[in-house]
């Protein structure tokens, strides 16, 4: 396995850690947590936030600064993760779908 593949593996691992944190937030609803706020508001608010972050990513992509695209993409991925957890859809299912597509 080359060094980039090893790094990518660590980063994917991080997404699974975030998924576990979000599942806990949804269950425990700790005070002071932004994710708690979203889970308490429910799917409409979560979907709305995902849409906003998608638009912000699109706007950032029109600018020259890569840092803005990276920042907005991170917001987008986080809100997508919250939406998946709200719907009880494991991250694994999304990766499996991508793997199936890669074999076509
Ligand atoms: N990765 C993230 C993450 N990315 C973005 N955000 C939040 O997403 C929000 C996006 O900013 P906006 O201005 O669009 O939203 P806002 O004005 O704060 O909120 P709204 O009133 O619009 O709903 C910010 O408040 C960010 O803090 C995140 N909040 C939490 N996480 C991770 O989620 C985990 C749990 O965090 P908590 O739930 O805060 O404990 C931790 O590992 C965090 O690192």
UniProtKB/TrEMBL annotation:
Pfam family, one: PRA-PH
Alphabetical UniProt keywords: Amino-acid biosynthesis, ATP-binding, Cytoplasm, Histidine biosynthesis, Hydrolase, Nucleotide-binding
GO biological process: L-histidine biosynthetic process
The organism's place on the tree of life at top rank: Bacteria
One of the record's GO cellular component terms: cytoplasm
Enzyme class: hydrolase
Pathway in which this enzyme or protein is active: Amino-acid biosynthesis; L-histidine biosynthesis; L-histidine from 5-phospho-alpha-D-ribose 1-diphosphate: step 2/9
Listed GO MF terms: ATP binding; phosphoribosyl-ATP diphosphatase activity
CDD domains: NTP-PPase_HisIE_like
Subcellular location: Cytoplasm
Catalytic activity: 1-(5-phospho-beta-D-ribosyl)-ATP + H2O = 1-(5-phospho-beta-D-ribosyl)-5'-AMP + diphosphate + H(+)
EC number(s) stated in the UniProt entry for this protein: 3.6.1.31
Homology family: Belongs to the PRA-PH family.
Name under which the protein is recorded: Phosphoribosyl-ATP pyrophosphatase
């Amino acid at each position: 396995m080359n060094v980039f593949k090893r790094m990518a593996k660590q980063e994917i691992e991080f997404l699974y850690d975030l998924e576990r944190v979000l599942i806990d937030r949804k269950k425990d609803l700790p005070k002071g947590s932004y994710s708690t706020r979203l889970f308490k508001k429910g799917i409409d608010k979560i979907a709305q936030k995902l849409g906003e972050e998608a638009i912000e990513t699109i706007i950032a992509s029109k600018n020259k600064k890569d840092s803005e695209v990276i920042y907005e993409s991170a917001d987008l991925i986080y809100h997508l993760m919250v939406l998946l957890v709200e719907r009880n859809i494991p991250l694994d299912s999304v990766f499996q779908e991508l793997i199936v597509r890669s074999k076509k």
